[in-house]
Structure formats: structure tokens, C-alpha cells
Model the fold of this input.
Amino acid sequence: MIQFEKFKLSNGLKVIVHEDQSTPIACVNILYNVGARDEEPEHTGFAHLFEHLMFGGSVNIPNYDQPLQMAGGENNAFTNNDFTNYYLSLPAENLETGFWLESDRMLSLAFSDKSLEVQRNVVMEEFKQRYLNQPYGDVWLLFKPLAYKKHPYRWNTIGMELSHIENAQMSQVKDFFSTWYHPGNAILTVAGPVKTDEVKRLCEKWFAPIPGKPVMKRNLPVEPPQSEARKLVVERNVPSSALYIAFPMCARMHEDYHSYDLLSDIMGNGASSRLYQSLVKEQKLFIEAGSYVSGDHDPGLWVFSGKLTEGVSMEIAEQAVWKELEAMAQEGPTKDELTRVQNKVESMYTFGNMNILNKAMNLAIFEWLGDAEFVNTETEKYRKVSTEKIHQIAKATFKKEHSNTLHYLSVTHA
Amino acid sequence: MLERTLQPPYRNDFRIPSLEHDSFKTATGIPVFLFKAGSENVLKIEFVFNAGHIQAGNGTIATACNMLMREGTKNRSAKEISEALDYFGSYYESEATRDRASVCLYSLSKHLNSTLPVLMEVLNEPSFPEKEVQLYKDNLIQKLRVNMKKIDFVARQKFPSLIFGEQHPYGIQQTEQSIGAIQRENLQELHKKLYLHGIRYVMISGNLGKDEEAWLKNILQQCTMRPEFGESLSKPDILPPQKKFIQSAEAIQSALRLGRCVPGREHEDYPGLQVMNTLLGGHFGSRLMSNIREDKGYTYGIGSGITPLLNATLLSISTEVGKEVTGDALKEIYKELQRLRTESVELEELELVKNYMLGTFLRSMDGPFQLAERFSSLIDFSLPESWYHQYLEKVKNIRPENVLSLAKKYLKPEDFTELVVGCE
Done:
């Protein structure tokens, strides 16, 4: 059970405080409700590039990192399809430095040309390092546009192509900031050996003076239902062929979400899962095989992925995967399988609470999903899932006409 | 009017949490340490063995033995072991590093009586079934082929051999041949020698009730594994510095590694070396990051680190840069080494680095699991409990002239081994 208090400043900033006296470290987490799904198709990769620019100095503080490190702190950030999250941790004695830094970059950035130029290059190197110069690195660059036709999830957080980043202009940066980076579009979490009253005082001092703005209403294209199987075949210079199959699934806050998630755990999470036992250990068709859900805010994907054993044909491998999917669709899971993955979820959440930064982040993410209190009720939602429900979902989901398949074929040449 | 241009007051005299714990010895003499704390009823139990690369002879066989223990015992198949542990939501984690091996169980305290017996069976009676050994070898060879396509993997794998030589366990590289040579009999032999007779200690951290604690102690008391000291370990002969290029077709980036051996944790230069390293490349705002990422945009990331091993300590710099700027990036790296050797560091930058190090140390003590880890690394290096306090005091007292003289001593370019993996 995570205790917390929640309040809202007059400019619209939501604040959550979690007191934990057992750690010497305080965390400040700010989630901005903007992600890659909010980008224009002609300017993808922008939310993530912008995340980099948030470290290029703010209106009153030329350098973000130095003063934080002077106070013994450390920070990082990540961008996904739905939101951008910034976090820092520092010795609790120096908490106010965190407020000073985060409030100033919410107020306004320095918008330096040099910073934009350098971060464009850094992000392009990131693109190369993680997506282009990496075996299987381009899988999601290929797979997302196959599985999504209309919704902005069809591009990756890093962007559709290098040129979108290369061409980013300062005027776009300023517009982006003014649209999305303001108190009403953010959630602040403070966790650690802090006092709620002190956090309130610091919020009033540093964040309350930032002017509020109207919150942008989203109007995203809706992904139409899929009615026929889609398939993409590519050849790459990699040692093992890989197979990906994805099926559309519900949104994160849909009541079926937990069933989909457990279905992926039973099928393909860990050494005792069906796909691993059958495809890797017994039939030896794959060297790795697993399944997971994308977990995005809007309707997402249920994904199988695996790397084939050398010498195994794609056709045989694919048939074997479908056999497992169909078996689940026909018979559903056993009671033991369900209990096992429910127990795993319980311990995953419990272990997650051993780390103060995790708690701060989870509180912010659940508040973004609707209510920070979900952090305490999530395990219960997984407990309520029945074998019948998972059976029903498997039956409705694992259909050829709902499948998106990527054959990533190994062609080795010296 | 709110003053936004000035940083609020901050301090660096943080209270460092204590490493207070319980300990006892089992009937066979295994030291057991208990860090009881935390709000959640979870437990981590780690068994640590003299079964790393250096004790086993090489990393391939050490890791194979460590990984394959859970793939079958006298009474249970691999599947039954996984199911038994997964059913109660526990996590099994094991690894063999250069100097030690460990097998670790994370469990909700309430399920400990179901999960720990399975772990004890894995530790005491692994059967290394032939078909599991074969499958492990086949899959590992294929994964190695995938990894050899990654320039950073090739660099990470090759670099130690340029420092420690191809023959010493610290430098021996994993190859398809070395994987192919793994035999069930060797694994059984290693297990007997390094696990059953080579346990070092058991580290327990988390929260458990009185009854659970008594039960746990009882199980450990019955443990028949023995802590015996093996033969003393061979010190590597450090090779003379060299420059090496490895061609990687189609690479659009180059992986760079530069490094040398430096004195270890027992040496008086060590705290200062850590300060110097943090300044150079040990944090986000370091000299290397500021220059090569933030100023030039050559890379997504660059860093340096000090890796203390039992028989050597390595200072190394690593990065991946765009292939067309490989030469420029190397030039800038050497320029930063030169700057540290010739210019005295400003007091403000030095203070920043020291405060950051103190904060990082504090961050590594968040909760019982981490406290136990900090304590483990003292035991692993046979250092006294007072070591951290002395170390932190020494860090606080490092002055610009200390950094300058350490840099002059340890950052000469001719002492560095340099490796580039990329496409020319």
C-alpha cells in the first residue's frame, strides 16, 4: 500500500506527494502529457527531440545538469508514444534545487540555436546507434506502419526517418513548447523522506507563479478495425531469421486490458511460459520466443516475437506458433497457469515498490491514466481475471484476418 | 520577487546510512549476513561462490555451469523447476562474473517455504542433463553470431584481451569453439569443486517475520556446502599498450575503447583516481560528454569508468561515434586527457564532481537490497566495514593539485591501449 497526498495548484499543475522516511533519496518526477502520437506525420520524432532540448538550458538557468550535480543529484528522461517523463533524484536535504530547476524549464526554455543544432546531431546518432547500426534494429520501423494504418502509433518515437529530425526548425520547437509544456498539462510527483507541508510550500513558491494555459484537446485519427491478414517480408544480413506476429488489442484503460496482459504472460513471459517451453525447449524451432502487450494508451498490439533456430524454415516456425495460439484460442489457459502469472504480477508490483524512483514514476503514470490510487488497486484487477475471460479473449484475438506478420529473413553474405 | 537565477542553498554533508546487519555462521562455516529492513514483505537471498571466470579458468565454462544449474536436478526437470519458482511469483537470477558467481532468489516472504527448497535443490543437486547442455550450446552459438554483428559487443569482447592477453581468464574471449567444447562432465566437476566446496557467503536482505527468520536460519544451518579456499588466483601479465583496428563491414558507426590498468581499491591513489575518472567521463556533464556529445554531437553517449577486479583494476573509455568522425572523436578524447594532465581543474568543477559522487553513493544505498549490495562488494574485496567512510572522506579532501598529479601519472596517451571496431 503506497500512501500519498494529491493536490492541484491554481495554474492547473497536479501534484502528488509520497512520504517514505526509509530512504535518504528524494525524487522529483514530472510527466508531460505529450508523446509521439501528438506529432504531425511530416514532423515525426519531434517529442523525443524536444526531450533532448529540455536539457539545453532554461530561461533563467543556462545549464541544467551542473547545478543538479552540485547538489548531488542525477536526472534522466524518456519519451514514448503517449507521454514524456522527466525525473531526478538527489539527497533529500537538497530537494529545493530540484524544484528550482524543474519550475524554470516549465516556465520557459533558453531556445538556443547551438543546442538545437547539437541535439539534432545527437538524436541522429541515437537513431543510427539503436535503429540502423544494430541487427534487428529496424524491426519496429518496418512493423509499426504494417500494424497501424491511420493512428499515429504507426511511427516510432525516434521518428519515421532521419530527415524529419535533420529538418527540425527553431520555430517548431517554440510552438511545441507553448502548446504542450505548461502546468495544466503536467503531473508532478515528489517522493522520499519529505514532508507534505514542505512540498506544498515549495510548490507554491516555485510552480504556482507559472501562468496556466488552456489544455490542448486531442483529436487523433482512430485506427479502423483490421479485416484482413497483412504480411511483410524483408531480407537482412543477420545470422537468424526472426518472426513477428501482432494482433490489435484494447486500450490501456479498457476493462479487458489486464486479461490481454495476462494472456501474453501465460503464452510468452519467462521460462515456464507455453511458447518458450514448446518452441524453444521441446521443438527447438526458436532460440528465443516470447509475447507481450504494447501497453499504450490508445488501442495497442499483442505481440509475438521470436528468433528462429538456424536451418528451420520460416513456414514451419510460423505454423508452430499458430498451433500454440490456436490451442489457447480453443481451450483457454489452465487454472494453474493463471494463478502463476497473477502471482508474478503481484510480486512484480511489490518488488517495484522497493525503489523510491519507481514509486514516484508509477504514481505519476497512474495519475496520468486517471487516478494515482490505481497504484494500489492494479494487482487486484489482475486477480479478478478469470480463465474463461482469457479464453474468450484469445478466441477473439488470435485470428488470421487480425494478424500482422513480419518475416525478417536472414541472408548472410560476407 | 522570486530569484530564479540563483540556486537555492545546498549541502554536501549527507547522512550516510549505516551498514548495520546481523550475521552468523552455519554448521559448515558459511558466513550468513542479514539486512532486515523495508516496508514490503519481500526477500532477496543471494548465494555467492568462488566460481567466476578466474576460478573456473574461463568465462564460457563459468557461465555455462552457472546458467545450467537450474536446467534439471535429480528430482526435477528444467520445466518443473521453472514452474515451481514461477508459480509463487519468485524470480531466479544468476550470473558468473570475472571474480565470482552468484545464484539469487527474489521471493515474497510469505512464499519462502515453497521457493527456497527448490533453490536449495538447484544449488546442491544439479544434474546437467545432456539434452539441456546441448540446447544451451546450440542457442548460445547462434546468439553469439547475432552479437558479433554489434560493434559494441565486439569491442567489449575484444578489449580485455588486448590488456590481459588471450590466455588469462580476464582476457579470454568467447568463441564458437569454446562454446562447442563445453562438456557435461566438466560442468559436474566444476559444480562440485566451485559450488559445493567453494561457497563464500549468503547475503539476505528484505523484510521477514520472526517465524520466517527462524525457519530460514534452520534451512541454512542444514546446508552441506562448504567454504574452502581454492588455490591462489593467477595475476594477469598486463600487455604493453597497443592500437588495434577491427573491420566490421557495413557499420555506420565505430565503437571506440581506450584503457589501461590503474591501482585498485587498496591503493592510496584510488579515491583520487575515481574523482579524476568522474571528471573525465563518469557523469552526464563530464568533460568527454560535454565535448564529444554536447558540443560536437559526434555520439549519443560517451563515458569512462574504473572497474576494480580482484587481480587488476581497469580504467576505460568507451563510445560509439559516427564513422565519418572516428578520427576526430579520438583526437578529442586525447585532447581531454591532455587537458587534465596540463591544466589544473577549477575548484567549482571539482566540487561539482565530488558532490555528484557523494550523491551517487547515497543513491546506491536506497533500501535493504542496495545496502546488502554495498556490503557485498566490501566482502568480495576483503575490505573492512570502515572502508566506505574512509573512501568518502578522502574523496572530499581531493584538491586540484592531486587531480593534476594523478593525471600526469596515469593519463599519458602512450600508456593507453586503443581499439576501434568499424568500417574503413
